[in-house]
Each structure stands twice: as C-alpha cells, then as structure tokens.
Amino acid sequence: MSEWIIETITHSGYVGIFLLMVLENLFPPIPSELIMPFAGYAAAQGQLSFWGVMGAGIAGSVAGTSAWYAVARLLGIERFRRLCNWLGRVATISEADIDMAVHWFDRYGVWAVLAGRLIPAIRTLISVPAGLAAMPVWKFLAVTTVGTTLWTGFLTGTGLILHENYHHVEEWVDPVSTAVVVLVVVVYIYRFVTWKPIRDIG
C-alpha cells in the first residue's frame, strides 16, 4: 500500500492527496499515517508547497468524514434503530445502546468529535453518532476541521522535518493505529458473541 500511496502523490500532487484523504475517511484501512508524512516529505523536497499539502489533506479528510455524517443525519435516529433491529446480532447494537450513545453525545458532542479526529480508526466512526444526534452542520464542520487540522499538521510536519527519514513515522505511528483497529475488532467480536435482543421484533 505504501508504494501505491507514494505513486499517487508523486503523479497527482494535491489532487492525489485530496483523494487519498477522502478514501482514508471512507475506508479506514487506508492510513493517513502514510499519506501525510510522505506529502510533507514532498513539500520538504520542493515538489509541493507545505500549505498546499495541508489544504489538500484537510479538505479531503473533512469531505470524507462529512459523507458519513451526512448518511447518519439523513438516516435519522428512528430509521437507524429499525436498521439495527433488523440486522440484529450483526449490528451488535441494542436500542438501549443507541439511547445511551445519543444522550452521551448530546452532553459531550463537541469534545467527542474533537478528540475522535485525533484517534486512529475512531476518526471516521465519530461522524456517525454526530449525524444521528443531529449535531448542527456548522458545529460539526468547525470542530471536525479543527481536529483534522491538528492531526494533518502533525503528520505533515513530521514528514517535513524528517525529510528522507519520513518513513520512521510509520514505524511508531502505524503500530498504534493497528492496535486501535485490533481493539475495535475485538470489542465487536465480544459484542457479537454476547449480544442478546432486548425485545422481539415482529
């Protein structure tokens, strides 16, 4: 995957960075931890500008995560409930879970989105409860942009500073991302195995 990411940025520049970051938010296994450090390296080499790289990365990330927010917002809480009931064990989510999540998000929504944008794998998932809780669009975009700017700036800066050694970022950031993804999978498997319906759906 690293070679494909590097080739895309090398040949497509800012457009490539934008599209890769959109995909990273739609399909989390494509890691920003590989995209933005190399983009920063390209900026250090004079192939791209730092601010152009930042702009493309932030725009792509916000666009990608906003897609999940829009889907959840359009779906709405009631249709989401029915969908989870229909999917049953596969969804591993009960109506009680949904009520608790929405209540919690109503209380800590801004901070949840901000922190979520800084955590691997959670960056995409946090958009769904934001949409279900009908978080105002302007607030979601504002907080998402702040969190995205911090994360994108950190990764781009490391690539810019480390120059040819930008790949060392992957050596310590990627294992953390992998650990978070593994944790999410383990939690899902546990909930799948222990899931019980709270009522029969006719």
Automatic annotation (TrEMBL):
The keyword Transmembrane helix applies. Keywords: Cell membrane, Membrane, Transmembrane, Transmembrane helix. Its main location: membrane. Pfam families: VTT_dom (PF09335). It is a multi-pass membrane protein. Residues 30-159 form the VTT domain. The chain crosses the membrane at residues 12-30, 50-72, 140-163, 175-193. It is found in: Cell membrane. The keyword Membrane applies. InterPro entries: DedA_domain, VTT_dom. GO terms for cellular component: plasma membrane. This is DedA family protein.
